[in-house]
């Protein structure tokens, strides 16, 4: 049975706004281990579920999707954002 991981999307470090923050992402856990390809040496797997990413507006919508489709799931809490406010003049001290 596939296990889904639900996590809140975080803004990229290059973004200053919060336009796409707060969305929820559903990804599937890997069921088969990665193995090196004998020809190229790249790591690969026959598990294609790890390529699926579903976005939801709320955490409840993502959990309802898992319940509706019979998927086991767990929610990963986002790391707290630490802001360090600094004046531009502090760069030249």
Structure description:
With 93 residues, this protein is α+β, with helices and mostly antiparallel strands. The chain has a single domain, classed as 2-Layer Sandwich (Double Stranded RNA Binding Domain). The protein contains 1 helix and 6 strands, in the order E-E-E-E-E-H-E. The strands form 2 sheets. A 4-stranded mixed beta sheet has the order 5-2-1-6, with helices on one face. The chain has a two-stranded antiparallel sheet with strand order 3-4. The chain is flat, with a radius of gyration of 19 Å. The termini are far apart. Its main location: membrane. InterPro entries: NADH_UbQ_FeS_4_mit-like (IPR006885), NDUFS4-like_sf (IPR038532). It comes from Sphingomonas lutea. Keywords: Electron transport, Membrane, Respiratory chain, Transit peptide, Transport. Pfam families: NDUS4.
Name the descriptors.
1 helix, 4-stranded mixed sheet, alpha+beta, 12% helix, ETC complex I subunit, two-stranded antiparallel ribbon, Double Stranded RNA Binding Domain, 93 residues, flat, 6 strands, NDUFS4-like_sf, membrane, single chain
């Amino acid at each position: 049975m596939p296990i889904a991981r639900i996590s809140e999307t975080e803004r990229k470090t290059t973004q200053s706004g919060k336009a796409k923050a707060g969305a929820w992402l559903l990804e599937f856990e890997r069921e088969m281990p990665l193995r090196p390809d004998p020809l190229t040496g790249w790591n690969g797997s026959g598990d294609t579920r790890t390529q699926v990413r579903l976005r939801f507006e709320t955490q409840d919508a993502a959990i309802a999707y898992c319940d509706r489709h019979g998927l086991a799931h767990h929610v990963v809490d986002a790391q707290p954002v630490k802001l360090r406010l600094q004046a531009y003049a502090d760069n030249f001290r």
